[in-house]
């Protein structure tokens, strides 16, 4: 039990708490300003500026933590203060949180600064927020200029289109729509399919979050239709159409569509939020299966996402008894991967050494993971959470896993009772945590094992599984290409299949920008000796890639080959890759849609 002081008698404690809060308020003000500017960048079609801002905003948090730490050391010699002073600092800080609009983020900021100043590997829970001290329920911004978290509209069947137009107008986008009335009619048609034969109840309404969600080249209206006891989530993507005028591109409905839009494999949104917890609460009502940590991540509040993930993880450990084990699947050359069967994530540790032909370093690998964190992940690269000095109970680890870490990553392992509580712990110095997926090679093998020949239901299902997976695999690579990413190692084992059947890339140690690669055709063999040679008879530069050589590694199975060549044969030609590279170098930003193309209104607009 924490023994807090009977009275707050340190005048320094309040000053430290206030300075820390000033540091957080500066951080959130800058974060919010940058997020709000996304609207102007969208209106002016400044796509490169949008990408740059998304990349730079990720670094804001660490910069503000460093600034706050430096100020506290300089003005208050914070690291030299007695522990009872730090207890009082925390209590004063809680007092400052009571009427705050972002208390949960401010608590996380306090933890980040405090752990930097106290220079301890394990921190006494008295001095940090292990669990929230202040509720985030029902926070309202009552300042006169503040907008509410969401707006509510109360249309009838007759006024529904008019309400849709008003809903869009309320966002005050600077720039004309191509034909907002026409687009509202298309949205109405999509909504009417959901509301046909449905009696509108007394509470029929549309609730829409007050800020647009900006990402890449899109702006998204996010809300829900409420009728009686039913709630239907929806999102409306707004894009720049031909001629630069705005269009509503689609109407996305239901939890699955929203889950895809907010996927852990996509870049973070830019949203201007006065009360972020209220946005998360609203989004949870649309996607109840999505963990809160992933929603904070999707909103660009990655540090809060990490805090919540870790709390969920500790809670899961307390309520489970299975053991960490070496993750099933082909072992990687660079990463040692382990998991807890009952927990839907994998833990990845960089090995200390890499067999040939791998030529890399720990710093280079960390650089690749940072590249992915800062880049547009286009729904095809899994987000990662990065942690240092993570302590696990030793009795939750299989001995085989301990030996594996000892053998391949000894520098990352410590086994000790570091906090002196009499229990031995496994401390991992640095690791990445990712959503668990079925490796694509295992997913395909399951279908092969079920049997692809024959007329039965099982064979038809297996063939369908292979076809969908191979088409998705090619689509994943093409989306990465559109985002200026060359995966490097394109083997099936480096891709995973999500719960919704999406194929996502998750092995980043050989990732490169497409624009840094040189795509070449294999030169003609000079003679029979060249043709029979196991080694290339032509010069190969460090950034040279020969797409036609992918085939032997990927297309050994005849069914896989047939589907791949039918849908994605162009991936084996140097012209495909070089053409995309040249367009990107010329400044083109490709469209990558977080929804199926058949959901787009393009055809309906042409018909209209």
Automatic annotation (TrEMBL):
Pfam families linked: AceK_kinase, AceK_regulatory
Q: Name the residues that bind ATP.
A: 327-333, 348
Q: Which UniProt keywords apply?
A: ATP-binding, Cytoplasm, Glyoxylate bypass, Hydrolase, Kinase, Nucleotide-binding, Protein phosphatase, Serine/threonine-protein kinase, Transferase, Tricarboxylic acid cycle
Which residue spans traverse the membrane? none
| Residues in Isocitrate dehydrogenase kinase/phosphatase (AceK) kinase domain copies | 322-596
GO terms, molecular function: [isocitrate dehydrogenase (NADP+)] kinase activity; hydrolase activity
Q: Where is the signal peptide?
A: none
The active-site annotation reads 383
Reactions that this protein is recorded to catalyse? L-seryl-[isocitrate dehydrogenase] + ATP = O-phospho-L-seryl-[isocitrate dehydrogenase] + ADP + H(+)
The UniProt entry lists the main location of this chain as cytoplasm
What are the subcellular locations of this protein?
A: Cytoplasm
Assigned EC number? 2.7.11.5, 3.1.3.-
Q: Does the keyword Kinase apply?
A: yes
Q: Which residues form the Isocitrate dehydrogenase kinase/phosphatase (AceK) regulatory domain?
A: 17-321
Organism domain of life:
Bacteria
For this chain, the family text in UniProt reads: Belongs to the AceK family.
Q: What does this protein do?
A: Bifunctional enzyme which can phosphorylate or dephosphorylate isocitrate dehydrogenase (IDH) on a specific serine residue. This is a regulatory mechanism which enables bacteria to bypass the Krebs cycle via the glyoxylate shunt in response to the source of carbon. When bacteria are grown on glucose, IDH is fully active and unphosphorylated, but when grown on acetate or ethanol, the activity of IDH declines drastically concomitant with its phosphorylation.
Output this protein's name: Isocitrate dehydrogenase kinase/phosphatase
Underlying gene? aceK
């Amino acid at each position: 039990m924490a023994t807090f002081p009977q009275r707050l008698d340190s005048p320094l404690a309040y000053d430290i708490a206030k300075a820390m809060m000033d540091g957080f308020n500066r951080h959130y003000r800058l974060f919010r300003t940058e997020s709000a500017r996304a609207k102007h960048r969208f209106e002016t079609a400044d796509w490169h500026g949008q990408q740059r801002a998304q990349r730079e905003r990720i670094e804001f948090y660490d910069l503000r933590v460093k600034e706050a730490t430096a100020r506290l050391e300089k003005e208050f010699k914070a690291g030299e203060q007695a522990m009872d002073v730090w207890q009082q600092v925390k209590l004063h800080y809680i007092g400052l949180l009571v009427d705050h609009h972002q208390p949960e983020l401010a608590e996380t900021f306090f933890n980040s600064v405090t752990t930097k100043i106290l220079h301890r590997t394990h921190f006494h829970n008295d001095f940090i927020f292990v669990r929230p001290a202040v509720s985030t329920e029902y926070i309202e911004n009552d300042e006169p200029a503040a907008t509410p978290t969401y707006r509510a509209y109360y249309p009838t069947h007759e006024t529904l289109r008019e309400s849709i137009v008003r809903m869009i107008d309320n966002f005050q986008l600077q720039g004309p729509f191509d034909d907002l009335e026409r687009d509202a009619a298309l949205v109405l048609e999509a909504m009417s399919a959901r509301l046909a034969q449905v009696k509108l109840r007394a509470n029929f309404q549309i609730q829409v979050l007050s800020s647009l969600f900006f990402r890449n080249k899109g702006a998204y209206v996010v809300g829900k239709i409420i009728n009686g006891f039913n709630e239907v989530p929806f999102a409306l993507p707004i894009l720049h159409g031909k001629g630069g005028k705005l269009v509503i591109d689609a109407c996305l409905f239901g939890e699955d569509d929203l889950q895809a839009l907010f996927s852990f494999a996509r870049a973070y949104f830019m949203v201007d939020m006065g009360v972020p917890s209220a946005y998360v609460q609203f989004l949870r009502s649309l996607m109840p299966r999505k963990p809160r940590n992933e929603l904070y991540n999707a909103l660009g509040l990655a540090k809060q996402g990490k805090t919540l993930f870790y709390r969920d993880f500790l809670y899961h450990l307390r309520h489970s008894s299975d053991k960490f084990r070496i993750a099933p699947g082909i072992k990687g050359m660079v990463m040692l991967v382990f998991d807890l069967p009952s927990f839907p994530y994998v833990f990845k540790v960089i090995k200390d050494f890499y067999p040939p032909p791998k030529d890399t370093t720990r710093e280079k690998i960390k650089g690749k993971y940072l590249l992915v964190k800062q880049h547009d992940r286009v729904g095809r690269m899994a987000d990662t959470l990065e942690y240092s000095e993570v302590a696990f109970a030793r009795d939750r680890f299989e001995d085989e896993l301990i030996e594996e870490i000892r053998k391949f990553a000894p520098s990352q392992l410590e086994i000790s009772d570091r906090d002196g509580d009499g229990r031995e712990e496994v401390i991992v110095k640095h690791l990445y945590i990712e959503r668990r997926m079925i490796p694509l090679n295992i997913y395909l093998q399951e279908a092969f094992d079920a049997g692809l020949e024959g007329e039965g239901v099982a064979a038809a299902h297996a063939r369908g599984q292979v076809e969908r997976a191979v088409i998705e695999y090619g689509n994943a690579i093409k989306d990465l290409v559109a985002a200026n990413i060359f995966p490097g190692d394109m083997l099936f084992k480096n891709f995973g299949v999500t719960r919704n059947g999406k194929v996502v890339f998750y092995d980043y140690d050989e990732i490169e920008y497409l624009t840094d690669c040189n795509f070449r055709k294999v030169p003609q063999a000079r003679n029979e000796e060249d043709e029979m040679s196991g080694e290339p008879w032509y010069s190969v530069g460090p950034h040279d890639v020969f797409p036609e050589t992918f085939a032997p590694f990927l297309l050994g199975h005849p069914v896989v080959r047939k589907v791949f060549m039918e849908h994605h044969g162009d991936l084996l030609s140097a012209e495909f890759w070089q053409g995309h590279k040249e367009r990107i170098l010329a400044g083109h930003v490709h469209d990558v849609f977080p929804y199926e193309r058949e959901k787009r209104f393009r055809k309906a607009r042409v018909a209209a």
